[in-house]
Amino acid sequence: MGDLETIARANLWMRTASRVIVRIADFRARTFFELERHAKKIAWERVLQPGQPVSLRVTCKKSKLYHSDAVAERLAASIERRLGAESRFSSQDGAVDDEPERDAPAEQLFVIRVFKDVCTVSADTSGALLHLRGYRQALAKAPLRETLAAGVLLGSGWTGKTHLTDPMCGSGTIPIEGALIARRIAPGAKRRFAFLDWPGTSPWLWPRLIAEAEAFQLERCPVRITGSDRDQGAIAAARANAERAGVADDVEFSVKPVSALAESGGPRGDVARGWIVTNPPYGVRIGDVDRLRNLYADLGNAARRARPGWTLAVLSAEPRLDEQIRLSLEERLRTRNGGIPVRLLVGAIPAESGKSKTAAVTTP
Q: In this structure, are strands 163-166 and 225-229 parallel, antiparallel, or unpaired?
């Protein structure tokens, strides 16, 4: 429950959500007559301008009303009658986290769910998906969404108060999101949201919240954050992304393989302990698992050798590769990355390391 300021703060500060949607109606409908009767009572004008393009994303399950396009047509007609102007609309059946078309007009998205004859109508407040922070224009292979990178960091238990390193950082999303967390920078501060165009939104609301966010953020990162990758092009992309995110001075990037993970140390923060957080290749194609065994073994070896007493967090899709790390890792969460089911695995790196333990993890 909340008002427009609640909506604004959610979009400004939420690091892991794909969208913020608000429920504007909830009713039972088993016939199109019932659907139309309830729809005409919805105050569409609270979130729409007359003639504004509309996108209706409808799903129907276990209900008498099972034709999603027919439901969308009735609701679109209700909008036109209520606002007194024709609203162009598109109907999409499916998930609510699809990428928008690059050159599409500014549409207001409504998410309609008909489940067991109950129709729930929600208005999207975000517009473009929340992972589009605006800084990640240079990409490496298999980029990690910003929202998922933040979720991995927070799910691992990292709080922004200890050293962070990613030895397979790609285009730098995990270290950059870490710097944003550590400096208390609002992830949505550099973009625009759909609710800002709603009737009744005060023109002073957003500038006031941005001023508050800027006063809350830290001048510099209080801990050392590093990222490395063996791909020189990926590191160049990471540095460019960090510059756009405003954290170029807060993250140290270098070109090196996982096996060269350096000894802990640095000028800032408590470096006696910290987190290794990484998103290694998954090996989803035939033959990839065998090829990646040594990479995962190198990660485990380097972690034990260079970061005893630290915490390791790995986003993984393949248990056979997890075994090569040879550390006790527990599952913290499950989600999907690019349609691939993945798990966040987290565990402590033993404080005592020895040559025998290191040698035991080598693979043919």
A: parallel
- Report the alpha-carbon distance of residue 11 to residue 122 in Å, rounded: 16
- Containing domain of residue 285, as a range? 146-183+218-360
Taken in order 101, 21, 60, 50, the sign of the CA dihedral is: negative
Cα–Cα distance for residue pair 206/188, rounded to 1 Å: 11
In DSSP terms, which residues pair with 331 in a beta bridge?
345
Within 8 A by CB and 6+ apart from 199, the residues are: 45, 46, 47, 48, 49
Q: Are 81 and 156 members of one domain? A: no
For 94-109, letters b (16+ CB in 10 Å) and e give eebeeeeeeeeeebbb
Does residue 172 lie within any of the structural domains? yes
SS3 of 10, please?
A: helix
Residue 65 corresponds to which tokens in the numbers above? 């009303």
Rounded CA-CA distance 38/254 in Å is 59
State the pLDDT at residue 52.
Answer: 87
**Contact predicate 164/178, CB 8 Å:** yes
235 domain-assigned:
yes
Report the CATH number at residue 158.
Answer: 3.40.50.150
Query: What's the pTM?
Result: 0.87
Q: Looking at the domain assignment, is residue 5 inside a domain?
A: no
| Each residue's pLDDT tens digit, 272-326 | 689 999 999 987 654 577 788 999 999 999 999 889 999 999 999 988 899 999 9
pLDDT digit string (tens) for 104-119? 447 899 999 999 999 9
Q: List the helix and strand counts (H, then E) for the chain.
A: 10, 12
Token pair belonging to 241: 């992304």
How many structural domains are present in the chain? 2
* Identity of the residue numbered 96: V
Give the amino acid at 196. L
Q: Is the pLDDT of residue 354 over 50?
A: no
